[in-house]
Amino acid sequence: MAHLTAPSFGPAAGGAPRQLVVICHGLGANGDDLIPLAPVLAPALPHALFVAPHAPEPCDLVSPEEGVHARQWFSLRDWSPAAMAAGVRRTRPVFDRFLDETLAEHKIPETDYALLGFSQGAMMSLFTGLRRIVPPRAILAYAGILLDPEALAEEIVSRPPVLLVHGDADNVVSVEFSRMAAEVLKRQQVPTELLIEPGLGHAIDNAGITAGARVLAGAFSQG
């Protein structure tokens, strides 16, 4: 099983971390691309350790040389629902192991973590977080897709608050995927907030970050 490595940031307040926020990048990126979100979010969680794991596979949409830095959680050569569901299921054990090991390494209580993902990282965060026995405090999914929604009713074991953020000008992952995700999650009694951003493409902007910081702060204030 692959062992993930990750750049990290914090805690901003110093000392041992009390919480963990895991940031999952999108297709063809790596953890270095999204760890800069950590200092922006840190005022909301000054005692949190932020980590942004590099996905386990080289991206198969670029050359092998580029793939050293361009990573993927699973292949997206085939965007069919069945292929993406198979991909996320194959990678989930690797991600679960990373979460468990990181919490244990830093002696952070297993209840005190949150997941944040962009694009393919949002797919990974949603799929995994809703199926972990010990739920994350929150899941923040930016420009993502809720994969294998038909199986969720039988497989869901956690119902953390979920923030879905999506630009209505996204021409990579349609905003309709987040709208559909919100409907499915609400049917499963998952506390869900949907933020549609007018004019935003396939990106995370200040409004999305502000909303994410608010949700994280609220999730970890619950004791």
Brief account:
With 223 residues, this protein is α/β, with parallel strands linked by helices.
CATH H level: which superfamily? Alpha/Beta hydrolase fold, catalytic domain
| Helix count, DSSP H or I runs of 4 or more residues | 8
Strand runs, count:
9
Q: Give the strand content.
A: 15-25%
Write the layout of secondary structure elements.
Blueprint: E1 8-9, E2 19-24, H1 31-34, H2 37-41, E3 48-51, E4 57-58, H3 64-67, E5 71-72, H4 81-105, E6 113-118, H5 120-129, E7 139-142, H6 152-155, E8 162-167, H7 175-187, E9 192-197, H8 206-220
Parallel strand pairs: 2-3, 2-6, 6-7, 7-8, 8-9
Antiparallel strand pairs: 1-3, 4-5
3D architecture notes:
The chain is globular and about 45 Å long. The protein has eight helices and nine strands. The longest helix has 25 residues, at 81-105. Helices cover 36% and strands 17% of the residues. The chain has a single domain, classed as 3-Layer(aba) Sandwich (Rossmann fold), CATH 3.40.50. The mean pLDDT is 95. The protein has 223 residues and is of the alpha/beta class. The strands form two sheets. Strands 1-3-2-6-7-8-9 form a seven-stranded mixed sheet, with helices on both faces.
Keywords:
223 residues, alpha/beta, Rossmann fold, 7-stranded mixed sheet, two-stranded antiparallel ribbon, 9 strands, 36% helix, globular
